[in-house]
C-alpha cells in the first residue's frame, strides 16, 4: 500500500474547475518540496482518488482546500489545515510548507469543535473566529454545489418548453402543446427543489446526516412560506445548528446503547420540531424581505440597467466562481424560477466574458505570455463559451491588483449592454450552448465579445508592461525547483530532443521514481575535476562558455561550441536563474558522453534573470546525453530537494574548497 507524506482533499461549489486546479497546484507544490502527496477530489462527478484509512494513518498531515463539505472525521488526530479552495490555487507552496514544517498546527479533534493551539489567548480567539467563518462559508458552498445541477436541469428543461411558444404550457392558450406542458411541468417541479436542497445541504455540512434530514424539512417549510433562497440559507444554518444543539443536550445519554435512537428518533423529531417552528414564525418577514429584494432588482432592470450591469459585472468577475460570484448567480436563478429571464442574461454575460478575455489577450500579445499561458488562453475560448468562469483564475492570480479590475471592466460592459437591450436568457447555465433559447442570440454574443475584447486589450497591455519590466517573459513558477525546462516561453523543436516532456518521458520518469533514491544522488555524477572556485566571469554568456569548455576539458563532451549553443537555447526558452544567487543551467546534446554535474563559484556575481532579481555567483550545471534514459529528471529533482533546505544553501554559499562542496552533495 502506497504511503504519502501529505494527503489532501479539494472541492468547489461547481465541482468543475477549481477542484482540479487546486489538486494540480498542490501536487506541483509538493513535488517542489520533494514530498509525496495524494489528493482526493470532490467534483461534480463524485469523489475521485478516495483516501484509504491506511493512507490517512501514515500521512504527516492533511490539507483540505475545499468550498464544499469533506468528511473530515477521518482526519481526527492528524494535523489539519482547512482553507477555501481558492487558497489551494493561490498559495499551494505555503500550504505544503506549513503542513511539512509547522509542528504547531493543532491536531484535528472533531467536526464543529474548535482546534486547540498552545498559544496566547489572542491567537486562540483569532483561530476560533477563522474556524467559525470557514464553517459558515464551506456549508454555504456545499449547499450551492448540490443545488446547481438541479437548477441547471430544471431551468434548461423549462426553457426548452418555450420552443413551442411562450405560453405553450398553458392549457388555456392557443399556443398550448402537451409535450411542452410536460417539459415545463418537469422543469418547474425540478426548479422548485432548489430551496429545500440548498437548505438541506447547508445543514448537512454542519451536522452530517441528521442535519440533512432536518434541513430538507425546514427547506420545504421555507419554500411553502415563499421565503425564496434567502429562507433556504437561513433555514440551512438553523437546521444544522439545531442538530448541533441537540447533540449537546442529549450527550449525557449513553451513546453506545442509544446511538440508533438518537439518530433515528431524537435528532430528527426534535430537530424538525424546533427548526420547523422557528422557520414557520419567520417565514412572513423572510417572504417580505425576499419579495422586496426581487422587486428592487426588477425595478433596476428598467430604471437603471447601467448601474445594475456594473454591480453584476463587478460581482461576477471579482472571484470567478467564488462566493461573490455565486451570490449574483443565486439571485439570477431565484429570479429565473419566478419567470424573470432578464437578470440571468447579465449574470451569464458577466461570467462568460472573463475566460474569453484571456484568449483574446494571448492572441493580441503572444510574446507577453509563456507557452503554457497561451495554451490555457486558447482552451478558455471553449470554457468561456460553456459558462465556466474558473479558467480565468490563473490569469487573475498572476497579477490580481491589475488583472481583476481589467476583468471587471469587460464583465460590466457585457452585463450593461445585455440589460440595456432587454436580452432574455431562460436557462441558468450552458453558455452559448443555449443560444437557441435566447431571444436575441446574435446581439447577446456580440455584447459578450465586446466586453471580452475590452478586458483582453487591458490584459494584453498589462502583461506586456510586466514582461518589459522584467526583461521578457518570466518562466512559469517562482521557486528553485523550476529546473526541467518544461514551462517555456517559445515552442521547442522536437527534432533537437531537448528537455520537453513527452508521454514516453513521463513513462520513463514514472519508472525512475520507483527506483532507489540514492542511485540518483547528484553527488554520484560530480567529481573534483568538475568543480572550480573563484572563477572570473564577465557575464552570463561568459559563464556558459566556460562551462562548455570545462566539459570538453574533462572529456565529458567533444564540442564546446555545440554545448554552449544548447546552454543558450535553454536560457532563451526560460531562464535557469533561480534565487539566492544560484543558477542551474543545463544542456542536452549528442556530443555529450555521459550525465555529469559541474559546479562553479564566481569571484564576482554576474547578471542573470532570477526570481528575486539578484545576480548569480553559484552555478550548478548538468550535462545530459542526447539519448538519456530519463535519469536527468531525477538528478534535477534531487538537486531541487537539496536546495529547498536553507541550511544546505547556506553551507553551499559559504563553502570555499572543492572538498567541502563534494561533501555537501554526497
Estimate the helix proportion, in percent. 55-70%
The shape, in one word, is globular
- Counting DSSP E segments of at least 2 residues, the number of strands comes to 10
Number of helices: 22
Radius of gyration: 29 Å
Q: Residue-averaged pLDDT, rounded?
A: 80
Low-confidence stretches: 111-130, 474-518
Q: Report on the biggest sheet.
A: 5 strands, mixed
Strand content: 5-15%
What structural class results from the helix and strand content?
Answer: alpha/beta
Domain PTS EIIC type-2: 136-477
Domain PTS EIIB type-2: 6-101
Biased composition (Polar residues): 476-487
Protein name: Phosphotransferase system fructose-specific component IIB
Task: Give an overview in words.
Keywords: Cell membrane, Membrane, Phosphoprotein, Phosphotransferase system, Sugar transport, Transferase, Transmembrane, Transmembrane helix, Transport. One of its GO terms (biological process) is phosphoenolpyruvate-dependent sugar phosphotransferase system. Residues 136-477 form the PTS EIIC type-2 domain. Residues 524-666 form the PTS EIIA type-2 domain. With 666 residues, the protein is an alpha/beta fold. Among the domains are: 6-118, Response regulator (Rossmann fold, 3-Layer(aba) Sandwich); 304-474, no CATH class; 504-665, Mannitol-specific EII, Chain A (3-Layer(aba) Sandwich), CATH 3.40.930.10. The protein is 58% helix and 9% strand. The protein contains 22 helices and 10 strands. It has helices at residues 18-32, 53-58, 85-90, 92-101, 121-161, 178-191, 194-224, 228-249, 255-303, 305-319, 323-337, 342-364, 371-385, 393-398, 400-420, 441-469, 503-513, 540-553, 560-573, 631-643, 646-654, 658-665, and strands spanning 6-11, 37-43, 46-48, 61-66, 79-83, 531-535, 582-583, 586-589, 596-606, 616-625. A 5-stranded mixed beta sheet has the order 3-2-1-4-5, with helices on both faces. Strands 6, 7, 8, 9 and 10 form a 5-stranded mixed beta sheet that branches. A hairpin with a 2-residue loop joins strand 2 (37-43) and strand 3. It starts with 5 loop residues before the first strand and ends with a helix. The model is unreliable at 111-130 and 474-518 (pLDDT under 50).
Amino acid at each position: 500500500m502506497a504511503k504519502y507524506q501529505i494527503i489532501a482533499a479539494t472541492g468547489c461549489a461547481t465541482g468543475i474547475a477549481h477542484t482540479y486546479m487546486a489538486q494540480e497546484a498542490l501536487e506541483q507544490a509538493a513535488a517542489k518540496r520533494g514530498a509525496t502527496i495524494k489528493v482526493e477530489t470532490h467534483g461534480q462527478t463524485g469523489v475521485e482518488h478516495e483516501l484509504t484509512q491506511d493512507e490517512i494513518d501514515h500521512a504527516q498531515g492533511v490539507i483540505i482546500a475545499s468550498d464544499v463539505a469533506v468528511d473530515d472525521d477521518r482526519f481526527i488526530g492528524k494535523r489539519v489545515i482547512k482553507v477555501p479552495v481558492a487558497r489551494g490555487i493561490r498559495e499551494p507552496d505555503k500550504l505544503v510548507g506549513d503542513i511539512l514544517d509547522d509542528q504547531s498546527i493543532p491536531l484535528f479533534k472533531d467536526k464543529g469543535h474548535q482546534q486547540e493551539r498552545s498559544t496566547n489567548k489572542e491567537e486562540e480567539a483569532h483561530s476560533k473566529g477563522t474556524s467559525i467563518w470557514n464553517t459558515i462559508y464551506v456549508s454555504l458552498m456545499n449547499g450551492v454545489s448540490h443545488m446547481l445541477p438541479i437548477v441547471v436541469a430544471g431551468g434548461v428543461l423549462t426553457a426548452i418548453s418555450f420552443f413551442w411558444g411562450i405560453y405553450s404550457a398553458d392549457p388555456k392558450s392557443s399556443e398550448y402543446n402537451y409535450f411542452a406542458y410536460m417539459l415545463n411541468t418537469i422543469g418547474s417541479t425540478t426548479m422548485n427543489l432548489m430551496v429545500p436542497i440548498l437548505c438541506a445541504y447547508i445543514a448537512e455540512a454542519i451536522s452530517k446526516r441528521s442535519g440533512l434530514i432536518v434541513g430538507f424539512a425546514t427547506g420545504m417549510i421555507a419554500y411553502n412560506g415563499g421565503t425564496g433562497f434567502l429562507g433556504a440559507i437561513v433555514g440551512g444554518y438553523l437546521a444544522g445548528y439545531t442538530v448541533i444543539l441537540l447533540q449537546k443536550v442529549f450527550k449525557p445519554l449513553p451513546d453506545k446503547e442509544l446511538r440508533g435512537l438518537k439518530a433515528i428518533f431524537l435528532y430528527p423529531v426534535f430537530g424538525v420540531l424546533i427548526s420547523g417552528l422557528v422557520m414557520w414564525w419567520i417565514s412572513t418577514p423572510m417572504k417580505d424581505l425576499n419579495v422586496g429584494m426581487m422587486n428592487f432588482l426588477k425595478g433596476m432592470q428598467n430604471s437603471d440597467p447601467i448601474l445594475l450591469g456594473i454591480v453584476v459585472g463587478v460581482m461576477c468577475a471579482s472571484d470567478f466562481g467564488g462566493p461573490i460570484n455565486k451570490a449574483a448567480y443565486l439571485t439570477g436563478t431565484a429570479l429565473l424560477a419566478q419567470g424573470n429571464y432578464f437578470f440571468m442574461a447579465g449574470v451569464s454575460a458577466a461570467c462568460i466574458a472573463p475566460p474569453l478575455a484571456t484568449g483574446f489577450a494571448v492572441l493580441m500579445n503572444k510574446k507577453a505570455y509563456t507557452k503554457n499561458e497561451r495554451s490555457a488562453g486558447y482552451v478558455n475560448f471553449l470554457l468561456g463559451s460553456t459558462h465556466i468562469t474558473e479558467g480565468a483564475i490563473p490569469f487573475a492570480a498572476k497579477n490580481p491588483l491589475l488583472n481583476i479590475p481589467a476583468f471587471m471592466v469587460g464583465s460590466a460592459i457585457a452585463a450593461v449592454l445585455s440589460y440595456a437591450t432587454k436580452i432574455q436568457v431562460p436557462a441558468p447555465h450552458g453558455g452559448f450552448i443555449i443560444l437557441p433559447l435566447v431571444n436575441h442570440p446574435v446581439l447577446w454574443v456580440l455584447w459578450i465579445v465586446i466586453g471580452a475584447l475590452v478586458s483582453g486589450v487591458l490584459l494584453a497591455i498589462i502583461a506586456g508592461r510586466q514582461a518589459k519590466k522584467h526583461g521578457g517573459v518570466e518562466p512559469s513558477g517562482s521557486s528553485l525547483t523550476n529546473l526541467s525546462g518544461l514551462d517555456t516561453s517559445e515552442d521547442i523543436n522536437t527534432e533537437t530532443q531537448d528537455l520537453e516532456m513527452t508521454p514516453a518521458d513521463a513513462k520513463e520518469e514514472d519508472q525512475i521514481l520507483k527506483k532507489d533514491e540514492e542511485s540518483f544522488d547528484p553527488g554520484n555524477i560530480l567529481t573534483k575535476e568538475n568543480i572550480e572556485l573563484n572563477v572570473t566571469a564577465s557575464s552570463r554568456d561568459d559563464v556558459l562558455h566556460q562551462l562548455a569548455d570545462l566539459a570538453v576539458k574533462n572529456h565529458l563532451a567533444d564540442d564546446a561550441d555545440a554545448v554552449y549553443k544548447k546552454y543558450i537555447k535553454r536560457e532563451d526558452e526560460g531562464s535557469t536563474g533561480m534565487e539566492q544567487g544560484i543558477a542551474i543551467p543545463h544542456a542536452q546534446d549528442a556530443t555529450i558522453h555521459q550525465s555529469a554535474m559541474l559546479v562553479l563559484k564566481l569571484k564576482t556575481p554576474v547578471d542573470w534573470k532570477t526570481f528575486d532579481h539578484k545576480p548569480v555567483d553559484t552555478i550548478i550545471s548538468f550535462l545530459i546525453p542526447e539519448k538519456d534514459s530519463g535519469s536527468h529528471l531525477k538528478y534535477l529533482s534531487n538537486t531541487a530537494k537539496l536546495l529547498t533546505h536553507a541550511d544546505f544553501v547556506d553551507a553551499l554559499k559559504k563553502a570555499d574548497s572543492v572538498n567541502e562542496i563534494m561533501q555537501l552533495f554526497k
